[in-house]
Amino acid sequence: MKALLVIDIQNDFLPGGTLAVSGSDRVIPLINELMPSYELVVATQDWHPKDHGSFAANHEGRSPGEVVDLDGLDQILWPVHCVAGSEGAEFPESLHTHRIDHIVRKGGDTRVDSYSGFFDNGRRRSTGLAGLLKREGVTEVHLVGVATDYCVKFTALDAVDEGFRTVLVEDACEGVDLKGGDVRMAIEAMESRGVEICSVEEVMAET
Ligand code: VGL
Ligand code: ZN
């Protein structure tokens, strides 16, 4: 059975948000079109406490884009985004949220970031996503959302490690691309680990 994983489609990652991924609003109608084709739709949400260690504002004298050590891991600093319970952390109104069966929240631990929907960046704690998918009988996951070079990439790599056939629906994703080429490199990294790459059109033609 196939599940659609909708990664971090939240106001702060959309144009006008605090960590806006340029062009990310483009993927919402595509995701809406895809959702009815899946037996299970799981959406992740980046869901940080105000004092989260990934926010530049919580490191004296630091700016977004700089890298610090956070509990032994390299951490890129970001603008304040997706604070639990804030408007920026909500799904946009344009997303067909009635199609979402489960929501998995990540990034709740102040001392560690969580790009993947499965584990934190230190792989210390699981979100429960793998167990949820396995209980539901899922064997294949298709990924859409933001950002291709962060949360989508790390969720896809963990999905492969967890034994799922893993497909990236490339044109229904959008990346940050901090340094030009990050999205291309992310896609290559996913492919070389066994992630299949396809398009919305190809998915829709199959169903
Ligand atoms: C993300 C940076 C920081 C993402 C989340 O959803 O890709 N990127 N937090
Ligand atoms: Zn975040």
UniProtKB/TrEMBL annotation:
Pathway assignment: Cofactor biosynthesis; nicotinate biosynthesis; nicotinate from nicotinamide: step 1/1
Statement: the UniProt record of this protein carries the keyword Transmembrane helix: no
Biological process, per Gene Ontology: pyridine nucleotide biosynthetic process
EC code: 3.5.1.19
Residue span(s) of domain Isochorismatase-like: 3-202
Any one Gene Ontology molecular-function term assigned to this protein's record: nicotinamidase activity
Enzyme class: hydrolase
Record flagged with keyword Cell wall biogenesis/degradation: no
Top-rank taxon: Bacteria
Keywords assigned by UniProt, alphabetized: Hydrolase, Metal-binding, Pyridine nucleotide biosynthesis
Family: Belongs to the isochorismatase family.
Protein name, per record: Nicotinamidase
Native species: Haloferula rosea
Gene that produces this protein: pncA
Full protein: residues contained: 1 to 207 of 319
